[in-house]
Amino acid sequence: MKRGIFLLTSLLIASSLLVSACSNNNSSSNSASNTKSTTVPATTTQETPASTVVGLTEPFTATDLSKLPAVAQKRTDTIIVGLTDPSGAFTPYFQQSGYDGNVSSLLYASLINVDDKGLPVPELAESWDISDDALTYTFHLKSDLKFSDGSPLTADDVAFTWTILHDKAYDGDSQVLTLNVVGGAAYKAGTATTITGIKVTDPKTISVTLEKPNATALVTLGSNVLSKAYYGKDYKFGQLDYIKKLHEKPVGNGPYTLEKFIPGQEVRFVANEYYYKGKPATEHFIYKTTEGDVWQFVETGEVDYASFSATQENIDKLKGLGYLNVIPYTPSSYGYLQANLEHEQLKDKAVRQAITYGLDRKSIYVDASQGAGSVANIPASPISWSYTEEGINPYNYDPEKAKELLDGAGWTVGAGGIREKDGKPLSIHFLGSKSKNTDIFIAVAKENFEALGIKFEPEVFADFNSLVSKVEGGDYDLVSFSTPMLTDPSDGLLQFLNGEIKGYDNPKFKELYDKGLATTDIEERKKIYTELYQLLNDELPVIFTSYKKTVYAYNGRIENVTVSPFIGLAGSLPNWSLK
Amino acid sequence: MSTYLSKRLIYMFVILFAASLLIFCLYALTPGDFISGNIKLSPERKAELRDIYGLNKPLLERYGIWMSNAFRGDFGFSLAQQKPVLQLFNEYIWNSFLLAVVSTFLTWVIAVIVGVISAYKQYSWFDTLVMVAIFAAMSIPSFFIGLFLIKILAVDLKWLPPGGMLTTGSNATGIAYLKEVIHHMTLPVIVMTLLGVGSLTRYFRSNMIDVIKQDYIRTARAKGLTERKVLFTHALRNALLPAITLVGFELPALFGGSLIIEKIFNWPGIGQLYMQSFGLRDYPLLMGFTMFIAILTVLGTLISDILYHVADPRVRLQ
Question: Where is the ABC transmembrane type-1 domain (chain B) (predicted)?
Fold first, then answer.
């Protein structure tokens, strides 16, 4: 009898897991990113479909600040921003959740930051030199830099930061490891006690030598700096667990310091008097955990700033509240349909092009989402310095052209209106994450594919990990993905190279990719990336789908707000002030 | 009694052991792992990380490692949260417990009172009204009623806060802190009570109806006892007996958290954390929490068996 009861409970537990799988679609994909360059936008984004498409092109200024709820009116030295779910791992490089990245981006400054175009600008480093062979990077630090505990920040701290990332126990996803620093591998293997490629010349100068030129190195290396005195005092090679104990007691060098972390509720910050640019204008800053809907907190004035999907409905509602400034924003990511290039039907470029022509992407990504998106044709966001439309085929919806291409590729209409080649029907097994956008995609794509004579078999996953493992198993034809926030144009191309997209092997692409990283001259890189984008736009190893559009809404009392596509609010936050 | 207890404890041990193996396999065999969700990593780095976390080891070996650590009281670090699993429990479970214990208490009190009265006045207008209200409360989805109440009471009328446990940025301590928490928990407690009270009221009502028809109630009335005394001393006691079994099952529910309520009201509870860690395949946290609930379930049934024996000496424990 008791065994029976227990069996029942374990079944209940098991079934609750299935339920859980259904209710958790966004978090995993969101939290895949971290570090400065990939900070996720604060708060959950709301999505609602309807009809008209106008969008928001100009910033909108609050019309009636007297409507501001009393709670928000009363705050004089505190700004509150919603953030889905920071976990408390506030040490940069050692966090697993992008939300922790949002927190640490306020606690730690970088050597080098990026501007609105993604180009490097000095922060803690005053300047930098790159050797002619593009292998050695020398950083010159500003004078009198200090950590939040008042201790000086020197080149040794920088060297320490780079070194522990090469520890064999390091389990974060820092891209520093992909740069191949000279001597890095030896250190990781435990055969060397220091990394030979890292050289501290004097307390303000440090250089690093790479084995291979890499244009992303400057920004990747020029990230946050950890205090050697604080994070390094217990360090032994191969043993990094002690850092976990320091996660909630960060010693940083950013605009704010951590005052208090209340798990699941808030992260409280107080202005850092040692910040290199001077103490921020607003004394207190709070990230409030908003797991569910953020509207209720915006409407009651409990948060000052939130991001929303740029649907007409959201924009109208935000404008209607009267006390919010609304600014349009395009994230630096792109959406795509990954094609299974190992399957016969999608191996052929013509078929992939036909699908791109035959899919009404404008209806799916622009019209159905009320203008909260635009059609993508290259692997770079419109805000990137490398973005171009020169020589790019827009693949405007053209079912006739699609049919022509399919006919040309040998897929002819057979019995039941389904195309066949060598007796095999043309079918597309599509995988997508459970979301409203996927529902729209499936509805439109089903019709589009039917018109082309392609059998469409959609499968929707509530759980992101299950979807990924199905993709890894190769049991799909098309799968819908979106990249994390991209800083350097090469970030968006890496997946074509590192084996993530199986079956794409084009020497020309590899050559151009390496060429794009071999130089740090922006104009020259622009040319190379234009060529690369033209190549990928023609070859379509993945089918480019869309760019997202969002808006940021914030309390009209806050001044000096700008939001960078690459570093979010962290860049302008020190200047925010309440009027 | 003591032989019974030792026998039960051995059973419990075996059951928990089997459960842990089952649960471990269940989690490990769900497609995808903690690493696969991170789309930023290259395949080589993924393999490296799986090696660091020991995810590439055979299933039984992983289970063995987990089990031997657990025996030493080490439930590991949450992979996503980078904190010891037990510390996370401590940070989140009490918040869930607070909501659960208050709403469970209210649910039981309301259910007993309403159940007794509607049983006593069976088929009266009161009884009918209660039944209609109960079915209505039971059939409204929690997210709907939650959001509806937020809209009315928090956004429009501004009587209650829209969510969270504290006023953002508040430094209240002592009585002020207590007041703030009560203020914030009102809405979620109302919703949880509304959802739970229906089935329990029906349960007490039908138990009570059965008991009232018994001979000893007629005897009590014949003795000239007041109606109140008959109902609440003689009848209710016996009607409550079967409910003792329910007490045992409430135990895991008190600590388990409620995903939907916590999400809607932005409550910092364990339910949310658990669901999130399932999406991420945060194995140590998943394993730790599920085992914790399993232990509570087994303990709960033991407690209810013992309580039953205490309340009703006719029940023999063997």
Answer: 93-308
Distance between B117 CA and the closest CA of chain A, angstroms: 32
Of the candidates A24, A32, A483, which has its C-beta nearest B38's C-beta? A32
Is A8 an 8 Å CB contact of chain B? no
Please list the residues that pair with A461 across neighbouring strands.
A433
B37, B95, B163 ranked by CB distance to A465: nearest: B37
Q: Residues 83..142 of A with a Cβ closer than 8 Å to B: which?
A: 85, 87-89, 94-97
What are the pLDDT digits (tens) for B249-308?
Answer: 888 888 888 888 898 898 999 998 898 888 889 999 999 999 999 999 999 988 888 888
Q: What are phi and psi of A211, to 5 degrees?
A: -80, -25
Residue A451 half-sphere exposure, CB side, CA atoms within 13 Å?
18
Chain A: closest CA distance from residue B146 (Å): 12
Tally the C-alpha atoms within 13 A of residue A111's C-alpha that lie toward its C-beta.
29
Structure-token pair, residue A141: 């630090």
Contacts of B91 in chain A (CB under 8 A): 263-264
CB B278 to CB A21 under 8 A? Answer: yes
Helices (H) and strands (E) in chain A, counts: 19, 24
Closest residue in B to A86 (Cα–Cα): B81
Mean predicted lDDT score pLDDT of chain A: 86
Distances from the Cα of B292 to the Cα of A342, B93, B245, angstroms: 45, 11, 20
Q: How far is A95 from chain B (nearest CA, A)?
A: 7
Q: Are B67 and B33 in contact (CB under 8 A)?
A: no
pLDDT tens profile A258-306:
999 999 899 999 999 999 999 999 999 999 988 767 888 999 898 999 9
As given in the structure block, the two tokens for residue A126 are 């005053």
B29 shares contact with chain A (CB less than 8 Å): no
Residue pair A148/A162 in contact (Cβ under 8 Å)? The answer is no
A209 has a chain B CB within 8 A of its CB: no
**In this complex, is the C-beta atom of A247 within 8 Å of any C-beta atom belonging to chain B?**
yes
Residue A35 DSSP label: S
How would DSSP label each residue in A231-290? HSTT-BTTB-THHHHHTTS----SSEEEEEEETTTEEEEEE-TT-TT-S-SSSEEEEEE-
**Cα separation, B74 vs A34, whole angstroms:** 28
Cα–Cα dist A299/A343, whole Å: 50
B259 touches chain A (CB under 8 A): yes
The answer to whether the beta carbons of residues A123 and A110 sit under 8 Å apart is: yes
- Residue from B282, B198, B292 nearest B254 by CA: B292
Q: Which two tokens stand for residue B32?
A: 């995808």
Residue A32 touches partner B, C-beta closer than 8 Å: yes
Strand pairing partners for A138?
A129, A207
Radius of gyration of chain B (CA): 24
Burial class (CB in 10 A: 0-12, 13-18, 19+), B282: buried
Q: Do residues A172 and A94 lie in contact, with contact meaning Cβ atoms separated by under 8 Å?
A: yes
Q: Nearest residue of A to residue B265 by CA position?
A: A292
Tell the burial category of A254 from Cβ atoms under 10 Å away from its Cβ (0-12, 13-18, 19+): buried
Q: Do A465 and B42 touch (CB under 8 A)?
A: no
| Alpha-carbon distance A136 to nearest alpha carbon in chain B (angstroms) | 25
CA-wise closest residue to A102 among A269, A301, A217: A269
Query: How big is chain B, counted in residues?
Result: 318
| Mean pLDDT comparison of A40-49, A157-166, A429-438, highest-scoring range | A157-166
Sorted by sequence, the CB contacts under 8 Å of residue B276 that are 6+ apart come out as A24, A27, A85, B80
Let me know if A435 is exposed, middle or buried by CB neighbors in 10 A (0-12, 13-18, 19+).
middle
